[in-house]
Amino acid sequence: MGNLDDAIAELKTINSRLAEISDSIQARERKSEESLNTIRKDLWNIKNIVADENIQNKIIQKGVERALGKAAIYVLVSAMMFYIIGKFLL
User: Fold this and answer.
1) Which of 1, 7, 50, 80 has the fewest CB within 10 Å, making it most exposed?
2) pTM for the whole thing?
């Protein structure tokens, strides 16, 4: 019976050690999952920032195109005015 009692005690020790290892692994998995969630949130925020910047860049580009168009019209009108003034008044 002594060997059986020793084997049972050793199995209980192994079982408790396996439980500790299992708890440790589960804790690491939770930490890993939390880290992954944080990374996912950060990537989502970065994606939104990039999308917002793209939208802003398109708005700025349209504004610059309009400003350049207006500037070209003003230059054309000014050139025509100078031509008319130079042709008829000078």
Assistant:
1) 1
2) 0.54
29: amino acid identity, one letter? E
42's tokens: 């950060």
The tokens for 35 are: 């880290």
- Spatial distance between the Cα atoms of 82 and 88, rounded to a whole number of angstroms: 10
Q: CA–CA separation, 35 vs 53, rounded Å? A: 27
pLDDT tens readout for residues 27-39: 999 999 999 999 9
Q: Which tens digits make up the pLDDT trace of 53-73?
A: 888 888 999 999 999 999 999
**Burial 56-89, CB ≥16 within 10 A → b, else e:** eeeeeeeeeeeeeeeeeeeeeeeeeeeeeeeeee
